[in-house]
Amino acid sequence: MRIFSGIQPTGEIHIGNYIGAIKQWIKLQNENECIYCIVDLHAITSDYSPEELKESIINTAIVYLAAGIDPERASVFVQSEVKEHTELCWYLNTVTSIGELERMTQYKEKSKAKKKRANAGLLNYPILQAADILLYDTELVPVGEDQKQHIELSRDIAKKFNKHFGKTFKIPKAKLPEKGARIMSLKNPKNKMSKSGKKGNAISLFDDPKTIEEKIKSAVTDTDNKICYDPKNKPAISNLLVIYSEFKNQTVKESEKELEGVSYKIFKEKLTEVLVESLAPFRKKRKELEKRREVYVEEILSRGAKRANALASSKIVEVRRKMGLIN
To answer: Quick check: is 52 in a domain?
Structure first.
């Protein structure tokens, strides 16, 4: 099965990104054809520093590799290095209605926050995402819950294109984690964990032990002292319980049984221990990769782009032919 997914090269990759996407990628790469992209074109729809972008791209590649993506089993590349992404995006614009785009929850939230500074790229973001996915005849897209609506739109776009121009694209499916599809902020469990959120809302994959301890200590909890999974009535402790379970590689029910009768204070200490131990290999691997970034890491991205180019150029020829354009 062919898999495609990607993460923007903005901010620190946090445990929410890892649980929601990267952890799935690692499992899937063993038995599937996986394409993992650094989606830098999506990143420029928000305010950014051109001087810092290239550094962020390389740092994100290092995160992929440090977290466990194997470049021998999966293609890793930078989105902007494969021009067919933007070409297909334009073609898909012609079969996508403005109404569909305006209904996207992320667009509503981000455009409301930006008000008059919202750009057209923010509105068209889901079409570029659809192009990313459909360009490679993707069958499965491992994502967090917040991206589910965008994958549904990608499916709708593919169906409309196929109906109008003949069968061209495979209809992709989203793959969500069973639990932890949406890891929430440590400061406000009503909001998802975010790279750009309030200080202390997220734990980076590379936070040192002391920082992890401080963030978990200051994480909000609920009124009583009972540890159980109840997102509606106990969102804060439910969120911490999911994080604990994911890094212990056990079910939430198993964690509930293990932590029965344990106080919030002791639970936070246990969660800190689990995170410090689990994230230590990531910190070590990143240090090794940073020493080899100019040769090893950039070579992996170059190799991945060549593989992606071969697939993308073949697909775009088919799309142009179906649409009546000259190749």
So the answer is: yes
- Distance, in Å, from the CA atom of 134 to the CA atom of 127, rounded to the nearest integer, reads 10
pTM, entire model: 0.88
Looking at the fold, whether 65 and 171 belong to one and the same domain comes out as yes
Residue 299 and residue 283 share a domain: no
Name the packing angle between helices 50-67 and 298-322 (round to 10°): 100
Single out the catalytic residue among 170, 179, 195, 248. 195
pLDDT in tens, 132-164: 999 999 999 998 777 889 999 999 999 999 999
**90 contact partners, CB below 8 Å, separation of at least 6:** none
Per residue in 97-128, pLDDT tens? 999 999 998 888 888 777 667 789 989 999 99
Looking at the fold, whether 155 and 65 belong to one and the same domain comes out as yes
Residue 265: domain span:
209-287
> Which of 187, 192, 234, 268 is flagged as catalytic?
192
- Of 110, 175, 226, 270, catalytic: 110
110 has catalytic annotation: yes
Active site residue 175: no
